[in-house]
Amino acid sequence: MTKIRDDLSRRDVLKASAGLGLGAAASATLLPTAVLGADAGSLKAESGQPVYFRGWEYRTDIVQDNVNRYNKEMNGKIDYATVTGDYPALMEKDLIAKAQLDLFYANPSQAVRFLEGGWVMPANELPAYDSIVADMYPNIRDAWTHKGKLLGLSYFISVRGTMVVNLDKYNKAGFGEGDYPKTWSELYSLLYKLREKGEKQPFLPHWFNEWFGIAWGYALEVMNRGGSVADPETHKPMLTVDGPAGATLEDWKKIWKDGFVPEELLSYNEASYIGAFRSGRYVISPQQIYDIKQFNDPQKSPEIAGKTGFLPYQGQSWGMIDSAIYMMTSRKRPADQTDDLKRFASWYGYKDQNGDCFVANRWMKESMLFSAYKEVMEGPQAAASIKSSLVKPTDYEKLLEVYQHTPYPKGIFNVVWAEEYNSWMKEKLFAFFLKDLAVADVINETNEKINQLNKKYKLG
Amino acid sequence: MRQNRASLVRRTSELTNLQFALLLAVPVVCFLILVIAYPLGYALWLSLENVQFFGGYQADFVGLANYSDVLNDSAFWHSTWISVRFTAESVILTLLVGMGLALILNRPMRGRALVRAIVILPWAVSPYGAGIVFQYLVQGQTGLATAIAYLLGSPNAINLLTQRWIVELLAIGNAWNIAPLLAFFLLANMATTPRRLYDLAAIDRMKRWEIFRHVTLPPLRFTLFVFTCIVMVFSLRVFDYVYTMSRGGPGDASEVLTYQLYKVSFQDLNLGYGAAMSFYLLGLILISTALLYVLWGRHETQ
Amino acid sequence: MKSKTLAILGIAVAICWTLLPLYWFLKLAFETIGEGAQFPPYLVPPRPQPGAFFNIFGHAYRTASGIDLPASGQAGQVILGIRNSLIVAVVVTLVTMVFVVPLAYVFARLEFAHKNKLLGAVLLAASLPPVSTLIPFYSLYVQLDLVGTVPGLVIVTLTITIPFVTWMLIGFFRNLPPVEQLARIDGFSRLYTLIFVVIPMARSGVTVAAIIAFLFSWNEFVYAQVLVTGTSAVTLPVALSGFLFQSPQPNHLSAALWLTIVPPLLVAVFLQRHVAEMNLVDPVH
């Protein structure tokens, strides 16, 4: 179950005009809230003790507002704060230390490690577990399941590497929808044509300096080209010099040498990366699918608002599934506090006292964050939010099509060494450019590194 | 009040030097020893172990293996070189800029108090703040050079943040941050140089350079030495400034030793190895301080 | 004439060197997110407005041109951060001075056994890089339940300020005239001499040292980032770093940086009156 597209046929997609046709059997329609165990009484906090909720910094105004609502309406004592800096490392340190931490954000690439480390409580322990699972798209649920345990509840799902296009520049250079590249190699050829039309640096690749930066940019391109970094089940390395990995690196080296990429990109954080595209300086860039919303918002991105399109699916996927979940820690605390944690986790990560996916719906509305819950994705709100974020409302189906074909990198995400690999790969790829390493060497060393990691953790 | 003072006088009047010193210094020295001995001892223990948290805490004694592994690690040597380069450049730039600012501010002029207040400004900026400011200043996307290039009609992004120049840029920002303090200490020194020395120099028809060398500089040499020490130690141990300005990049071009340590101990949680590496950094700091003292400091007397 | 031109040129260079980097970043506080993302960047904010300062304290702001700047979700932490940073900085400064003045005095003016060893310990403490003591302190703090507490941060910050300020002050005390002999002839005790004779004489040096202690603790980032991030003991630098990573909010980051600069700035302006009287000497002598 590596690829979300496995479950889909093109017909399903086009048929499902009401919303995301994700997942094969949408048989589990909405159950009455009482059955879900989500009635008001059972979600009310009772212990009088605080529940510590931590996350990285993203629209903290919305998070705080949601938390305030829970505290007010459900008698909660939620202590919410953001954790800044190297998030996976800070979290692992807090988990090891059994610091005050109950509910927190995680990506699958940390979640599996945290579960294997014995630091978290799987979502299976929630009273509403059965209905949560029934409400999730099966492919997402599988992606978030490790050894039969559901790692956490849905925060967001996104396509990292949706190929956004600054239509203004693209059209001015004399290109139209018919010229949209269908594959990565076509994309790279287009860059040279754009340069002939006067765009000196048309492309901002996913090469920034974060643990989810260049290493993920590499993984997603290898997958889009039909390859994989590691086997989804055994985690054995799968890169080949004459396959997709080799082709990716050859193309990277070529555009690097031809001066398409500013060197400073290799030291950007994500904020600089988003800011650079927002400035309107670039024509094409792989970005988070949800950021299309803010790129088309004239208040936030006056330069590119109303002009940010994306490359449609034309036989080759673009990007890979990036997602985040709410995880619960297993630290020692009184039973009634653990019950409160479960209540809050359920309320926040699933349904509120009225049986609505309140938080998930809000994220969809405000930031176009996709959810694992069918109810959120197939509701009218989602369609409205997505349509209003696009240049043309008719692009709605095309956007969903991109999403539905996006692969999930289970081989390098759902494994204990995910973050170790990420940081190693990041540095190796930087060295690939700055020290001009050979393509074959990088690929062989990467395979070797993955073998070492598997050996270290006794996998495969 | 007066009575208190009187009793104070009587009670402590018989103390010897050592007793008095102990009385005042012991609590602090105890605190210091605790806060030095504890982390050092802990780090020493760590450096001899292979510590693992994953899958249950486990620490295995590995002897000096971590220390020899560090010496065989090319990333360590690379970082050492970057640290030394950054430090040497920071020291030289800080001395030059600090001296320049002091000379400029030492001239009598209208609005001198205002100019002085402006010049000390960078010192109020924290190292992490200076990192943020300089990153923004030198990047091609957001930088001043780009804005000026466009203003002059040359539409090109001018990116200064490259692997070739990043260490120099870091040193410039560091000097920008620290030099004002040096300038103010130098100014304080200059104020004590008798005016008549300059009058005598004028009678001798000394050139401007000669006046600087023979009249202005001698009383400043000591402050210069002390600041060389301070800037050196600070530059070798700084982390937050590099973290916010370049995050060790592009690539590993600005991975100073502290950044390397942060990565090893903190991101990879390779605690034993990181502890061993931190002793090499401590050694580097102590040896360079000692060397500076031997080569320069002991020749300077107040 | 030539010399005067040169002097004016020098002042102009000094002011540009000082202000340009600051200006270039701090102007962002007066731009909207969109204006801040402009390429090439604006030389001056096209429609300056103080919205970001409202936002970081939790208030939305509507600009004259009708752009809504929403309140920042970090506001709670910024406010908490200012409070905690002030508490930590003031407490650290006071404790540092109470400990350090006698210590530096003893090292500077008295001869006693093992003095050099003790002095060596102080210098060693001043050389320890925070990055290498981070893990030991963190594990100790976990055991003592000091992670995420203001007292914990105060203690760890003292380990930075005490050695360095001692180092500075030793030199200063050594430079004073030998007043103790006279005071002793007058029958004053040592402690009395220290408190009522030496310290008043050393007023400017002590003030400078206090200011430096304040700045060190106000600006401390490395320990705080690990020990108090995401807790109620968060400090301003850590709260500020929340604007740094994921979604670009240059206006908020800039406004928060203003906040971190203002208190030390006031202190620094105050300092430049005192530093003129201060003289620095090496403690190793």
Describe the structure in your own words.
The complex is a heterotrimer of chains A (460), B (302) and C (285). With 460 residues, chain A is an alpha+beta fold. Chain A has helices at 10-15, 40-43, 60-73, 87-96, 108-116, 129-135, 138-143, 167-172, 184-196, 214-224, 244-257, 270-278, 291-295, 335-349, 358-367, 374-377, 380-388, 395-404, 410-413, 418-434, 439-456; strands at residues 51-55, 78-82, 103-106, 120-121, 145-146, 149-150, 153-166, 284-288, 308-310, 320-329. Chain A folds into 2 domains: 31-158 and 323-389, Periplasmic binding protein-like II (D-Maltodextrin-Binding Protein, domain 2), CATH 3.40.190; 160-320 and 407-456, Periplasmic binding protein-like II (D-Maltodextrin-Binding Protein, domain 2). Helix content of chain A is 44%, strand content 11%. The longest helix of chain A is centred in the C-terminal third of the chain and has 18 residues, at 439-456. By secondary structure, chain B is mainly α. Chain B has a single domain, classed as Orthogonal Bundle (MetI-like fold), CATH 1.10.3720. Chain B has helices at 2-12, 17-47, 65-71, 74-106, 112-119, 127-138, 144-151, 166-191, 195-203, 208-216, 221-237, 240-245, 257-267, 271-295, and strands at 49-52, 58-61. The radius of gyration of chain B is 25 Å and the shape is globular. With 285 residues, chain C is mainly α. The chains are: A alpha+beta (460), B mainly alpha (302), C mainly alpha (285). Chains in contact: A-B, A-C, B-C. Chains B and C meet through helix 1, helix 2, helix 4, helix 5 and helix 6 of B and helix 1, helix 4, helix 5, helix 6 and helix 7 of C.
